[in-house]
């Protein structure tokens, strides 16, 4: 055993060297540094019963993205004289075992607001403090500390974006330079008989070569994140004029937005560094867009959902949630499966669901369309079911943002105009009249004339035959008729809203009564 004491930096998200306060603190005043990542079999293990390759919690695209991010982190640590120590098991238990066996005086890890980490971190911190180990757990995944915003608002999270903006103001660190990169790191300490491995490959995790014809074009890792950031913001005017929801959701060769979400999700990119780069550009242009539509505005949507999610019990469910409308959704497994498996018979919807499965990423408005279609627009299926499918397949899958947006799109919270429904036919056509997006993701329709590509069931049989796509045989008929289905959905939403109002009235009557 080497002499001296060490620090353990525990990577979970925050898979980067730049702007990493936990890594920086761990490296200071220590003889050894243990940079650890724990591979959790529960998250990574192949699930043969899942509807697509991957574990029960994550699709293979995201698992691959995570492994690529770890390989890149290891390589960046090696450049600084260190390496990544990969261990396997239930992460909380593994870290406690490391603390028992190694001579560690400091434990550093990024603070995480997700319930899964909150529960685990309590256990680990309890062990560390009983063992006299210093714990440093800074907020660096988000621009703001959600707890500070909630405190400023009298203990409750703000429920509108505008009220969030008012409370948040400028981040406290915004005017100081961020510590971007260390130049060297302390050597790795002796790890005794702990089983350390290299970053596993997907094959070592038990995945077979799936022969999937099209994999996600997005590669994981900090190096790729910084390159993508540089490319995305290289055109100052593009950044200055960025305006969402303007932008073409069907653009897939060159997406209309940055596609930095998977890198922010795993912390390969620091949101604070991204924010500062954008502020630097704003300083150098004559005028620029503002929140909610600007690029900084997008980062603030992320903050908004993190804050509400952190301050709302049962944020991820309808039951026992004080912000979620109670709606009697259908429990129709066949409709859910048709949506999930891109078999609704609406090419615009199905193409988006194929992009989700193949790429693990779609444009924001494309997500709007399929989420609306599944819930209050056409199928009236529970938003939690759609949330789970996104949660597993998206490479940027993020607990707070995914739940927040599903609550929004299903008109269960935040947004209540349930009469505004996306048409599964005319919405996509507006952007892509030739249907290039559909032809790419649904090659069965590649020869369908543009007049019919959004509604192939209306094509005469002779045209279907010529296009080698017979509806009902090669491509499904629509699972519902949009006009009647959307009318019925609006009627049911109207009824549910009225009932919610009545129930709220009753509750407050009772509350008042108990106060008297
Ligand atoms: P850009 O437009 O370039 O924005 C930059 C960053 O801002 C994004 O990377 C993201 O971190 C943040 N951002 C942008 N839009 C939003 C938003 N509406 N809410 C919160 N943050 C935002 N985003 C996720 O990161 N993870 C999810 O699991 C997720 N699930 C979603 C589910 C539904 C039903 C919907 C409608 C949207 C969901 N989003 C999710 C939000 C949004 O669609 C993506 O963040 C965005 O499309 C990512 O692409 P981008 O990086 O090019 O975004």
TrEMBL record:
How, per the record, is the cofactor bound?
Binds 1 FAD per subunit.
Q: Look up the record and name the cofactor or cofactors this protein needs.
A: FAD
Q: Which domain of life is it from?
A: Eukaryota
* Residue span, Photolyase/cryptochrome alpha/beta domain: 5-143
Give a GO biological-process term.
entrainment of circadian clock by photoperiod
Q: Which GO terms describe its molecular function?
A: deoxyribodipyrimidine photo-lyase activity; DNA (6-4) photolyase activity; DNA binding; FAD binding
* Site (Electron transfer via tryptophanyl radical) location in chain: 329, 383, 406
Where does the chain bind FAD? 257-261, 298-305, 396-398
GO CC: one term? Answer: nucleus
Q: Does the keyword Metal-binding apply?
A: no
UniProtKB keywords: FAD, Flavoprotein
Q: Which family does it belong to?
A: Belongs to the DNA photolyase class-1 family.
Q: What is this protein called?
A: (6-4)DNA photolyase
Read off the lineage from the record: Eukaryota, Viridiplantae, Streptophyta, Embryophyta, Tracheophyta
Could you tell me the gene encoding this protein?
Answer: LOC107409245
